[in-house]
Write a structure and sequence with these properties.
With about 400 residues, the chain is an alpha/beta fold. About 40% of the residues lie in helices and about 25% in strands. It has two domains: about 5-125, Jelly Rolls; about 155-390, EAL domain (TIM Barrel, Alpha-Beta Barrel). The structure holds ligand C2E and calcium ion (CA) (3 copies).
């Protein structure tokens, strides 16, 4: 850790210099002055615990002010690498916003000194760094998805999940689709990544659940208890930042009257790895609502097996890659068999995903796989088609 001790009156940095370091004031006080091109203007007097000199380090522009010690000061030196490290890890949109703000700040400083009312025109361009010009397109995409959500254009589709033993319809997974006026049906891969980054995915997931719950209950013959098809909803990892999602799910269960024992909440392994304690709390709270928890895309990431005994999961969804691979590759078949045996030993229900042909069905059934999902049984369909299927 580099510490600088300076006497009263010493210059810390000067206007016009390149900015290599920022400083955290340990003790003493510092004055920031600008006005090389006119009468000096004191911009700030800062003391212990405050940061100075960060602007030029962040935006690579020459320093637009001079810093002087007003009394003996102790400064902690923060190198460019350290500060830049934080910026590189930040969301590109956030770091772009920071650059825009610094550019505005520099213009405001100049206007203060020159007492001009010039309207800055180049500020936003100045702050754009190569290759980052499209970060605002993320913001625009986000606004479009937000509007689609508000207009009801994000709707649940329903993919059947069948009991492999009897071939009977057991439930549906809800999968979101954007019914776009020009682009037609937009698939989740085209908008979920943006919604994940902006956090909008949380509102989308809840909206999809609410509409799906109402649509299933409105289906003739759906009943309102044990014979209601179960709904398996997707819950993004970004819900795990807090426990709010539990109250929100509870409110939808209450409003719609959907029987919670017919609800399965799909989460992915990534959540268990990233926030193990929060994930455990959320899983237990979902149980508290009377619903079940499914581990989605099982087998595709991390050291899956170790999570099974740490988290009280109810359902395993075996990823499509295993189902597809087991027909051709003995090793994949062996792994799938081991997963099913383990699930059996732990008393978990299993759903095999992505079943496109009937060849694998008898093998999966013999290995003890309860449920199947895939094009063989039905593609994701809109609510009216789901309702016809339930009524038939
Ligand atoms: P997922 O949760 O693993 O969903 C299964 C995906 O596999 C779906 O893609 C489904 O249409 C597709 N699929 C089902 N059966 C077959 C098959 O037999 N063959 C093939 N090739 N594909 C099959 P989809 O609908 O495009 O969704 C993609 C992903 O987007 C989902 O993967 C899920 O991670 C995410 N997603 C979809 N809807 C939502 C949502 O409402 N909320 C959240 N958080 N994520 C969602
Ligand atoms: Ca899923
Ligand atoms: Ca899946
Ligand atoms: Ca998937």
């Amino acid at each position: 850790m580099d510490v600088l001790q300076l006497e009263a009156g010493a210059r810390i940095f000067s206007e016009g210099e390149p900015g290599d370091h920022a400083y955290l004031i340990g003790s003493g006080s510092v004055e920031i002055v600008t006005g090389r091109d006119g009468p000096p203007v004191v911009l700030a007097r800062l003391g212990a615990g405050e940061l100075i000199g960060e602007m030029a380090v962040i935006d690579d522009h020459p320093r637009s002010a001079t810093a002087r010690a007003l009394e003996p000061v102790e400064l902690l030196v923060i190198t460019r690498d350290v500060l830049r490290g934080y910026l590189e890890r930040a969301d590109p949109l956030l770091s772009r916003l920071l650059h825009v703000l610094i550019a505005r700040m520099r213009h405001a400083q100049r206007a203060l000194v020159q007492r001009t009312d010039d309207v800055p025109s180049a500020s936003l361009e100045d702050s754009a760094e190569g290759g980052e010009g499209d970060v605002f397109s993320l913001l625009i995409d986000d606004l479009k998805i937000r509007q689609a959500l508000a207009e009801g254009a994000l709707e649940p589709f329903f993919q059947p999940i069948v009991e492999l033993g009897s071939g009977r319809l057991a439930g549906f997974e809800t999968l979101v689709r954007w019914r776009h006026p020009e682009r037609g049906l937009v698939m989740p891969a085209d908008f979920i990544p943006t919604a994940e980054r902006s956090g909008l995915i949380r509102a989308i997931d809840l909206h999809v659940f609410e509409r799906a719950a109402r649509a299933v209950l409105a289906a003739q013959g759906a009943g309102n208890g044990e014979d209601t098809p179960f709904l398996s909803i997707n819950l993004s990892g970004s819900h795990f930042a807090s426990l709010d999602v539990i109250d929100q799910l509870a409110a939808i269960i209450e409003d719609t009257g959907f029987p919670p024992q017919r609800l399965k909440v799909e989460i992915t392994e990534g959540v268990l790895v990233a926030h193990p304690e929060r994930a455990l709390a959320v899983i237990e709270a979902i149980h508290g609502l009377g619903a079940q928890v499914s581990l989605d895309d099982f087998g595709t990431g991390y050291s899956s097996l170790s999570y099974l005994h740490r988290f009280p999961i109810d359902v395993l969804k075996i990823d499509r890659s295993f189902v597809v691979g087991m027909a051709e590759h003995p090793r994949t078949a062996a792994i799938t068999k081991a997963m099913l045996q383990l699930a059996g030993a732990l008393g978990l229900q299993v759903v095999a995903e992505g079943i496109e042909t009937d060849g694998v069905v008898p093998r999966l059934r013999d290995l003890g796989c309860h449920y199947g999902q895939g094009w063989l049984f039905g593609r994701p369909m809109p609510a009216d088609a789901m309702q016809r299927l339930v009524a038939s």
